[in-house]
Amino acid sequence: MKLKAVILNCTLKKSPETSNTQAFIEHAEKEFNKLDVTTETIRVVDHNVAYGVSSDEGENDDWPDILKKIKAADLVVLATPIWRGDRSSVAKLVGERLDGIMTEGNDKNGQFPTYNKVAGVLVDGNEDGAKKAISSILFDFSEQGFSIPVNAFSYYVGEAGPGPSYIKAKGDKHEFTNNCMLLMVHNMVHLAKVLKGNPYATHVKQLEEQAKKMSK
Amino acid sequence: MKLKAVILNCTLKKSPETSNTQAFIEHAEKEFNKLDVTTETIRVVDHNVAYGVSSDEGENDDWPDILKKIKAADLVVLATPIWRGDRSSVAKLVGERLDGIMTEGNDKNGQFPTYNKVAGVLVDGNEDGAKKAISSILFDFSEQGFSIPVNAFSYYVGEAGPGPSYIKAKGDKHEFTNNCMLLMVHNMVHLAKVLKGNPYATHVKQLEEQAKKMSK
Amino acid sequence: MKLKAVILNCTLKKSPETSNTQAFIEHAEKEFNKLDVTTETIRVVDHNVAYGVSSDEGENDDWPDILKKIKAADLVVLATPIWRGDRSSVAKLVGERLDGIMTEGNDKNGQFPTYNKVAGVLVDGNEDGAKKAISSILFDFSEQGFSIPVNAFSYYVGEAGPGPSYIKAKGDKHEFTNNCMLLMVHNMVHLAKVLKGNPYATHVKQLEEQAKKMSK
Amino acid sequence: MKLKAVILNCTLKKSPETSNTQAFIEHAEKEFNKLDVTTETIRVVDHNVAYGVSSDEGENDDWPDILKKIKAADLVVLATPIWRGDRSSVAKLVGERLDGIMTEGNDKNGQFPTYNKVAGVLVDGNEDGAKKAISSILFDFSEQGFSIPVNAFSYYVGEAGPGPSYIKAKGDKHEFTNNCMLLMVHNMVHLAKVLKGNPYATHVKQLEEQAKKMSK
Fold first, then answer.
1. How many domains does chain C have?
2. D140 with D98: CB under 8 angstroms?
3. A45, A53, A83: residue with CB nearest C53
4. Looking at residue C31, which CATH number applies to its domain?
5. How far is C11 from chain A (nearest CA, A)?
6. CB 3.0–4.6 Å: which of A30, A62, B75, C192 could bond B5 by disulfide?
7. What ipTM is given for this predicted complex?
8. Which of D12, D93, D140 sits opposite B96 (nearest CB)?
């Protein structure tokens, strides 16, 4: 069975404005496809995603549709531009909304719907902030049920100060960025396959009971 | 074959001073042992670890001995107290020294000696900073060749401002902290076993070549 | 002349939902008022603030009105809840929009409209992340033209894991939080008065010219 | 009276090894000197600074001598290289040791010896992490009694991945970096003079009492 990847583009710019993050994503998609992984990219700002920390914030909230796609995927990539040396507000919003999943433990063993999915991060900026953005996002993913492979990220940044972004800087020809991206794609796919064949045995509910007893 | 865990205690305090981080580690060790994982804890400040970013900084540097143990382990846990809302300087030092491993790719496929090892993080403080510390450390681990399972961390913090730390605050009776710790231990062990049976197929050297070609 | 403070409430919750951040703000407002500073709080999500990094993102963007109030203030406080151990997405959005000011240098010496204003930060959460949030926000403020006094922040957080937030936890009776808040208020007011009487002499345009020459 | 600046070089490399951070510092020192500020740079790793959070960690600890110089200065600059996308372990160590000052409130009004001093940050790296480093350091400085002027920092970083650092990259000819550095120097000197003439009136002890009463 083919693996499926969902990529969340967290640019601040609505379609059809040019998004450097989108260009970076498309470059990565090709590599996923070569490994027989289907990809779908969602440009978050093109949808009406409400502020909040639940899986459904009511009327006019497009998050439930996005979440459905995340749940159906084996691999999830969060792609964000850098603003102010950090992930975009849209990327933070996505992190907040994914908290909803933490109340959706299944009946069997209490695992969130994200257990056994694998996550990665793409970041593009014109100067500085990639590692801060990646760090925060990897933490979110780990708590929210995802597993993180070796080198689960790639990024492009240029020299200090204003300057060209991914497209103009020819980030798709930047060897370090490409190398990281290939590692991310190959390692994500490996780990996703391995977890598909060997899902977590962790009984979340039983550990909750055990924690209760330990804490008396 | 039994799995082995190495835990790095990054307290600022030399033995025999009381270390809250040590108490937290010992609590976690019991759970690793229950799952048939042997554990060894290294209190980094008791050794003479030099500043630097290579695997051996010369005379009087104790890092090579510590690194040997890390290389022999299946699971690695970095445990750090919080100071100034962030990981300790000793934890940062360890992160810097682990960079040396990134120049030690093997001859076969270029993977670092850490590929197929699994990492986790323990953090204790008296008020604030656990998630910042965890975020930075997870990023380091991912780049340095480790894989990160679901909920790869546990932490204890108390209320804003000065207050009791792990031991006096009875962190070992704090349900949330215990629950996170159990999840960390069980998920780390699951992922370590799975990767032992299914090591990364990623050919790091070939991807380097591919990146070079893509970037012309 | 009375000093004016504008406080930006970056809760995710629209009015009239209860906002812990709002309760914290109101507690701080009383202290500003005692020092003869008038205060106005803006609950950002009640307005339609567009994503972007300019001062005006076009039709239906309420940011220009908010920015007008910021420009008329002597002191600016950004107040944010913690989500995922970090500032809220709304607080990040505000940071991004304030970038617009960096293209609004005046004709005389090129200083942004924020030069000689003083900034502070209030953060409330139920467990962890205050210092990470404050750090990022102080950096933004410094680059965006604000000056930062001693102890330019206050925060409330509780013990690790889910728990009561500012209102239920009686954050307004938490001594450390109150102490920090009083320091913030008194130090902000001192610095604002001092800068009003002694505005920055820095000639931003001339330094730009000097930097150009130095860099040939 | 001449102002005095102390600059802490937090490189990992002992003298006489080449330090890019040192080159950056020397470039900034010239500008301080032009404004009639005397400068002294301390290369922290050349001294035996113990781990800890007090002002004196006992025998063989060189921190007390460094702290004496900090106390005698009007301006303090922390200069750090980037390792792992963050400040160096040495810079973190310095932040930890400065905590000692927070127990040294004076008898008169309880202000730390750092009140009325002004702080800034220099960061050099070869690709990414300057803003994360600056953010954490500015937070530390603000809590530890320093005031932070507009644009209290400068940094140099190059493109994503390994590459030349400050010296080889000719950071001293990088216009953005120079512009930031000039702003930092001029704004620090302005604020230091202004605070020398108008020291904080804040009565720290009285506010402590007030906080106690408010919190009953």
1. 1
2. yes
3. A83
4. 3.40.50.360
5. 9
6. B75
7. 0.98
8. D12
